[in-house]
Amino acid sequence: MAAPRRDTKGIVDAAELFSRVRFRRREPAEALRPYLEHYWLIDWDLPEPYASHVVPHPSVNVVFQRSEAAGSSGTQPAEGFGEVAGIGLELFTKKLEGLGRVCGVQFRPGGFRPFAPARPVSDWTGRQSALSEAFPAGAADGAARAVLTPDDEDTRVAALDAFLLSLGPEPDPQADLAMALVDRVRTDRSMRRVDQLARTEGLSTRSLQRLFSAYVGVGPKWVILRYRIHDALNFAETGAAVDWAAVAADLGYADQAHLVRDFTATVGVPPTAYATGA
């Protein structure tokens, strides 16, 4: 990875979010780059609550967060904490209020298992779990304080590096294969079927499904569909007139109706309604 991604894929109404919070992506230490997409940092100071929405990537995140909510007796501080956020299967909504900070680690799909090799990644899917469930207690203890306390951004990034490097990820050829296959799905729109993806590596469909369950956390069909929805969301975000029948064909759908169904089920509104709002 040469640098953190600059796109906003998956973020619903990214312009609105960025107008309310300070959002950045940062590059991890070189030894961590084979496994990570990037770090993502958010700080906010909001006069009124705001709900952000994300169509999750097929990625595990480690998230450190702290907030102070305004109450009747003034600002109420909350202790910072860290958690493992498995792949979210539905639209993720987060209410932000008062003063707060989040420091997140987005792993590449397939890149989390080398840091927590004891369990298949599917065990974390759809869950938020304490760091101690995934990592040795010695590494998890004090990690949230070290990451969240510094006001200096470079110091926070260094603390994230130190935490992950202390876990000593071991090279794993199966993790490398899973990451390569998901990258293929993400970058090649012609990759539309599970059996087609399996053939690129000479695997059976069942072997591919087992690999994805153990190292990605969801099945290959789910990954293909999720990246299609991310692309459709990007088209809708432009605010320009969109030929949704052409988009459906370009993304590999049998027809526009199937795209509309999947988009509505994931985002909550049809693509035409979302595009009008954007």
Describe the fold and architecture.
This protein is α+β, with helices and mostly antiparallel strands and 278 residues long. It folds into 2 domains: 14-166, no CATH class; 173-277, Orthogonal Bundle (Arc Repressor Mutant, subunit A), CATH 1.10.10. Helix content is 40%, strand content 23%. It has helices at residues 14-20, 131-134, 137-140, 143-148, 153-166, 173-187, 194-200, 205-215, 220-237, 244-250, 256-267, 271-277, and strands at 22-26, 36-54, 61-71, 74-77, 81-85, 92-107, 128-130. Strands 1, 2, 3, 4, 5, 6 and 7 form a 7-stranded antiparallel beta sheet that branches. Strand 3 and strand 4 form a beta hairpin. It is globular and about 50 Å long.
What's this entry about, in short?
By secondary structure, the protein is an alpha+beta fold.
